[in-house]
What we know:
The structure holds 2 protein chains of 2 kinds.
Chain A: H1 35-40, H2 56-63, E1 70-72, H3 90-101, E2 107-114, E3 117-124, H4 135-151, E4 155-161, H5 169-173, H6 175-188, E5 193-201, H7 203-206, E6 215-218, H8 229-236, H9 247-252, E7 258-259, H10 265-277
Parallel strand pairs in A: 3-4, 4-5, 5-6, 6-7
Antiparallel strand pairs in A: 1-2, 2-3
Helix pairs in contact in A: 4-6
Chain B: H1 4-18, H2 25-42, H3 47-57, H4 65-72, E1 74-79, E2 91-98, E3 101-108, H5 114-120, H6 127-143, E4 147-153, H7 160-164, H8 167-180, E5 185-194, H9 195-199, E6 206-210, E7 214-216, H10 220-228, H11 234-241, H12 245-250, E8 256-258, H13 269-287, H14 292-304
Parallel strand pairs in B: 3-4, 4-5, 5-6, 5-7, 6-8
Antiparallel strand pairs in B: 1-2, 2-3
Helix pairs in contact in B: 1-2, 3-11, 4-13, 6-8, 10-11
Amino acid sequence: MSSxxxxxxxxxxxxxxxxxxHPNTCPSCSSHYRDDELDSALWVCSQCGHHFPMRARARIAxxxxxGTFAEADADVRSEDPLDFFDLRPYSExxxxxxxxxxxxxxIVTGAATIGGHACExxxxxxxxxxxxxxxxxxxxxxxxxxxxxERGAPLVSVSASGGARMQEGILALMQLPKTxxxxxxxxxxxxxxxxVLAHPTTxxxxxxxxxxxxxxxxxxxxxxxxxGPRVVQQTTRERLPxxxxxxxxxxRHGHVDAVVPRPELPDTIAKLLGLFGNAx
Amino acid sequence: MPxxxxxxxxxxxxxxxxxxxxxxxxxxxxxxxxxxxxxxIAAEPTDEEIWRSVELARHQDRPYTLDYVHRLLDxxxxxxxxxxxxxxxxxxxxxxxxxxxxxxxxxxQKGRDIKERTKRNFGMAYPEGYRKAxxxxxxxxxxxxxxxxxxxxxxxxxxxxxxxHGQGGAIAHSQATMARLGVPTVAxxxxxxxxxxxxxxxxxxxxxxxxxxxxxVISPEGCAAILWRDASQARRAAAAFxxxxxxxxxxxxxxxxxxxxxxxxHVDHDEAAxxxxxxxxxxxxELEGIPGDELRRRRRAKFRALGVFV
Lengths: 280, 310
């Protein structure tokens, strides 16, 4: 904190005005940013270090060596196997998500190099329907495992997901074993996987591929819990610890190997790729 | 649409019909069973029928894992504890015999009275439960015992300690363990197949589902609370995501439906167990003698083919 006089005291406990917060307001220190400021700061708050969600394209640009990313399977699209209709049809939600995000699905996959090391990438985008995993996320992730095995390059995954996509019903649940089996095939082929868990990685994605990397890295403050805090609170009436399900708590309890601030991720991943690449 | 499951059933039915001269009563029973499954697919369940499945799957008199164990397995010996931390009573594991052959069994266990329910945590396992299951899966693999898994859970337990002990990772690793097994594996959803807590035990060579069981990505109440922002819309949610057995068969998520007594498994535990036993034996017979590598390859290929996209 700076030594300037804090004039915000009387507002500190005022409830946040509902739905009126600008998305670029830091939820932990309330600093305001323009898009371009956040973009150049890797979507990390320069005041307090809070990690904002990072879009898949920005993430790939940040992690990979310039111009090395070659996207795969960009044209795979979801179907609506159940004719699912809640308040709106699933097909409409899909179309809207594609328009809003410019992405065909909640995951972007392809080949690239990081610090000169070849790898296969699978990066999720929370902006596409909460990063939920349906048939397409499962399929694209599985194909990424296969091409990693074929090329003899490690797989780097970055997850950001609320869990399985309810609109695809039981088929969404089946993407858990699907991605798990794809990783088993990758491991049998001698391949390796580095899993980066970004905020949030919860539900079915945490309960499948995100937890199965040879090395697990988490971003600071990332929620990584199977059940979300609200569900836990409602089901158990337990008082939740302040850092419930956060990366730091998971590190303490032995569920991740390191909590790595975003600016350090490319170097950390490059080092790991070097270590794993050395074995072949 | 004629789903893959339907085509597969039709094919088997045609084959069996041609063998009629060789067959005895058993074959006739098999024919009728397949025909019934086919009829069930053809007759799309109504929203009311789907909700009835939800209610029956959760019926308090429905047979639970140990009810089946005691009727189907000889020389049952329960294996307890994850060898690291605790014994989770919400998930039972053990060894026993079916037709003389030793099998390992894992399954969630619910309780019928308040005391038992609390002890069993309503069939909602902690990571310790899944780690116990993994230990027993690996034991089965070491000794060549087929694995039978009975799935009956509202879901893995959502609690602070469960998270701190690594619930998500435990479910992921349990699936990975099943994907690696070189022994025959048969899973049957006997009540509620609730989300991650269910799939943790269901990455099997044959996945069966009882007629009135449900298998879903989220509970109807949970889905309603999120999508309709109103948990009382559970009936509508269930109708939308279709957790019933016929729909799961149509989508290729399960391999066969296990019949129940006409009024449901809860009215006649003995008959329900007999019917389940028949299906389990049939599945185990089909898988017997297939080399481990081949089982693994087919199992993974099966799960990797699930999904619908363009």
